[in-house]
């Protein structure tokens, strides 16, 4: 019965992702850019502008953090600023760790993080959130794709143990027998593996290593976290940095949010299900649908299932949170913060996500997010 409930929920969420999607040209990104713009079609912006409540929003809104959500932020900012011309939004995609640090130092109005706040970070937030604290608002979901560049190999299946050994420099060549056993029909070349990980503190790294630890604890001896712990390999800054390395380097493999996998082949992940699972929005939604809210009060931190057994449930997923003060926000930025976050969480805002390579939040979760945004003070 539990599995049936998960499958019904996943199908409902998949339908939401498809039916709610609006036409959007996904924006290219550069994780080292200082501000956030976007170059998608103007028709999307004009269609959305009439539905955005600008309220008393004005001035500059500084935010930073997760690079995984940057393509979604680009689309949201373009539509929002078309409607609210008195607001300028600068989102710096310098990684979840840097975003949380900047927020806790009072430098930004909100932060984006692919990991929920730790208890000590919530405690620290009380210094800047007068009479309140920081809360996690889940806003964006999606699969973490494992992209690879192996000439002549158009389909590749890997399991958690093999992925672990590749990223821990235990498997170093693409024709290794463990990879060959999972891919009996592939012509694997005698080519050195070039594994790339994030150089910055990253929520994507945190979720990726949580998956490895949960699904292959014997093969992955390291504790999960935002900082890369395994030995060897190469590194690059941000999601777009590692994705670019995969594009230009033969033999490369790395992990990044699906929206960065344009023109990059991605791994099908072998789970406990009968068939390997592709990195798609629908398959990620099936896994996110099983998440549980574990935060207390207005905090909506989620517990993800990294070892789903359901058919078509992609195990490598992340949820990006917007982190804001529940109380004690700065008076000059509060109207813009609430107005912009309200748009992101709205039906229109969530409707943009699927075409940009992301999964919208389940209805029962995003309803709570909207309620908590409206009560920010």
Automatic annotation (TrEMBL):
PBP domain segment(s): 57-347
InterPro entries, alphabetized: ABC_phos-bd_PstS, PBP_domain, Phosphate-bind_PstS
Keyword Transport: yes
Signal peptide limits: 1-23
Family: Belongs to the PstS family.
NCBIfam families in the record: 3a0107s03
Name of this protein: Phosphate-binding protein
């Amino acid at each position: 019965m539990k599995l049936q409930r998960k499958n019904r929920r996943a199908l409902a969420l998949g339908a939401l992702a498809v039916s709610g999607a609006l036409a959007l040209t996904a924006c290219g990104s550069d994780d080292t850019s200082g501000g956030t713009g976007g170059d998608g079609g103007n028709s999307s912006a004009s269609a959305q502008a009439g539905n955005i409540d600008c309220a008393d929003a004005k001035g500059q809104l500084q935010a930073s953090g997760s690079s995984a959500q940057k393509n979604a932020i680009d689309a949201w900012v373009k539509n929002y600023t078309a409607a609210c011309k008195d607001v300028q939004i600068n989102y710096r995609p310098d990684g979840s760790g840097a975003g949380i640090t900047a927020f806790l130092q009072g430098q930004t109005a909100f932060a984006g993080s692919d990991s929920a706040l730790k208890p000590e970070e919530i405690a620290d937030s009380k210094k800047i959130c007068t009479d309140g604290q920081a809360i996690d608002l889940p806003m964006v979901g999606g699969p973490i794709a494992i992209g690879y560049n192996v000439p002549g190999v158009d389909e590749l299946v890997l399991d958690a143990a093999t992925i672990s050994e590749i990223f821990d420099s235990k498997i170093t060549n693409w024709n290794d027998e463990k990879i060959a056993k999972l891919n009996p029909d592939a012509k694997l070349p005698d080519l050195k593996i070039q594994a790339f990980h994030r150089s910055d503190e990253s929520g994507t790294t945190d979720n990726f290593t949580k998956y490895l630890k949960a699904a292959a604890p014997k093969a992955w001896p390291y504790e999960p976290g935002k900082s890369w712990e395994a030995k060897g390999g190469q590194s690059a800054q941000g999601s777009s940095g590692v994705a670019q390395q995969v594009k230009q380097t033969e033999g490369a493999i790395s992990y990044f949010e699906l929206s960065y996998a344009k023109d990059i082949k991605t791994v099908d992940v072998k789970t406990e299900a009968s068939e390997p699972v592709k990195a798609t929005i629908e398959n990620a939604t099936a896994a996110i649908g099983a998440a549980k809210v574990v935060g207390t009060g207005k905090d909506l931190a989620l517990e993800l299932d990294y070892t789903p057994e359901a058919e078509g449930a992609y195990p490598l997923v992340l949820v990006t949170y917007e982190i804001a003060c529940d109380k004690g926000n700065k008076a000059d930025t509060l109207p813009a913060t609430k107005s912009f976050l309200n748009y992101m969480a709205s039906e229109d805002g969530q409707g943009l996500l699927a075409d940009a390579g992301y999964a919208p939040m389940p209805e029962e979760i995003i309803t709570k997010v909207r309620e908590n945004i409206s009560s920010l003070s």
